[in-house]
Amino acid sequence: MKANTRTGSRIGLAAAIAVLALSGCGNPGTSGADTTASPTPAEQFQSPPSTTTDTSPSTSGPGTTLAAAPEKILIKGFKYQGTETVSPGAEITVTNEDIEAHTITADTANAFDVNIQVGTTTFTAPTEPGAYPYHCNFHGNMKGTLTVK
Fold this sequence. Notes:
By secondary structure, the protein is α+β, with helices and mostly antiparallel strands. It contains two helices and nine strands. The chain has helices spanning about 1-25, 40-45; strands at about 70-75, 80, 85, 90-95, 100-105, 115, 120-125, 130-135, 145-149. Pfam families: Cupredoxin_1.
């Protein structure tokens, strides 16, 4: 009879270890019951929600002003390149890629006279419409015309 008790104890111990080992494999946040809802047959065949991107141009509301494209003049190789026509009072960005300083000086007195060091400088175009021929005070062969419309 003693042999049966030992065998029963071993089987009971093995069963207890197996139960503990298996219960340790579950998700600690669940009670062991499956709480995931299966989709209904109708849900299985539904198309996913569509996503679209609006590519139409945006419009502004009343009283909103859209910013104009930046006006740029490039000085490179002792020549003016870029913007020739601007709006009255536009901000103009001048980039000097030469190794020497230049000017953008209007032939019309007091319209604009800007010293341009190597790098980037900005100035404001005249507010009065018209054609404004300009030159570089340091390099007489550099000439251009800024038209304000």
